[in-house]
Amino acid sequence: MYGMTKADLPDWVSSEVFRYLEHTTAQVPIRKLARKADCHASTILRQIRRLEQRREDPLVDGALQHLSQVYYETQKTARERIAKSYFCEEDAARCLTLLSHPGSVLVAGRGMAKAVILREIAREMHKAVLDLRMAEVLALLDWVSCFSSGKVYRYRITREGRLALAALIAEAEERRRHREESTTQSGLAGRIGPFGQKEPGAGKRARYGLQETPLQTLARLVDRDGNPFLSLEMVRAGERIREDFELAQIGQHVAHERAIFAGGAVERDPQRYGGPARDAFQRTSAALCALGPGLSDIALRCCCHLEGLEAAERDLGWSARSGKIVLRIALEQLAQHYAELPPRSQMIG
Fold first, then answer.
1. Which of 125, 191, 193, 248 is buried deepest, with most CB atoms within 10 A?
2. Among the listed residues 64, 69, 38, the one whose alpha carbon sits nearest the alpha carbon of residue 51
3. pLDDT tens digit string along 182-229?
4. 223 Ramachandran zone, left/alpha/beta (phi>0; psi -120 to 50)
5. % of the chain exceeding 90 in pLDDT
6. What is the 3-state secondary structure (H, E, C) of 147-168?
7. pLDDT tens across 3-18, in order?
8. What are residue 106's DSSP bridge partners?
9. DSSP letters of 279-313?
């Protein structure tokens, strides 16, 4: 079994697990593995011992045993067929999302055909059944860790699991955003849909710039009590100022318009804009002026220019993780600003 390579295993299998399988299943000497990895043999030995100790966990043991059987004891065509159904990023993200809620635990045990995720919601216990193979992968990747053993084993999501969940969500949102941006040559997927309260006799109007934004990603965050970090009104206010911003700069050079908005210049002759673009420019300027310095900076960067919070904090010279709080305050005031406008001004167009 000297013909196996890392490429023959799934992408999510780490090099450490591959070397462990090569040594224990394919009987490859430790020194040969060390030469291939360009490291000392003692390093490979420590990795093998560490994984051997983790096999006390039934999920880790099951994952290693399954990998050994599938990828070392079956034909190549069978390996390729099984690999397609062995691990799914969408299923992993769904399981990690459930486990990220406070008090959620994953329950599994030796001899159990399935694993269960238990959550307490409003004093009622909710359960979600997942495939045992998926639970084994989560444990092998150290995305969940066992905190209670006995007849059944209980697991909680780890720090690595939360980081992996954020990465999986970011990748999914990036793919979704790419699909939406590619629907038209301009990169904007125009849609028809209501915004806020419906007015009597009001028809549906076109919406601009509705691809996935950093604001919508931030809106999925929840606190320890499960309450959303941003309210629906805050998210709508952030989307509203971005729609006005993009409509105002249609037909204009993006870099030139950015300098105008960032400099707070509102003295530009509005007659040089035409129709809806002129009105959108005035609404955007009024909203930024209502926020004032500091709040308008973070709102302009994150809502209009779609900059990430880390980049905005770095450019503004703020401390880490402070932008999230300041942006929330800005969106709260922005929502109050739009709420005070006449009903007919609640939409663009």
1. 248
2. 64
3. 543 333 333 333 334 444 444 444 444 444 567 877 788 877 777 888
4. beta
5. 9
6. EECCCCEEEEECHHHHHHHHHH
7. 566 667 777 888 888 8
8. 117, 155
9. HHHHHHHHHHHHH-TTHHHHHIIIIIS---HHHHH
At residue 260's C-alpha, the angle toward residues 255 and 266, to 5°, is 160
User: Which single residue is written with the structure tokens 């691809």?
Assistant: 211
- Sole residue written with tokens 């030469």: 35
| Angle of CA points 77, 82, 87, to nearest 5° | 140
Q: Which of 256, 221, 247, 245 lies closest to 349, judged by CA?
A: 247
* Winning range, highest mean pLDDT, from 1-5, 75-79, 165-169, 318-322: 165-169
Quote the CA–CA distance of 256 and 24 in Å, as a whole number: 63
Q: Helix axis angle, 323-339 relative to 232-248, nearest 10°? A: 80
pLDDT for the residue numbered 81: 46
In contact, 219 and 251? CB cutoff 8 Å: no
What are the tokens at 74? 């079956």
pLDDT at 136 over 70: yes
Residue that has been written with the tokens 């065509």 in this structure: 77
Burial 36-57 (b: 16+ CB within 10 A, else e): ebeeeeeebeebbeebeebeeb
What is the side-by-side order of every strand in the sheet holding 114-121?
124-131, 114-121, 105-108, 153-157, 144-148
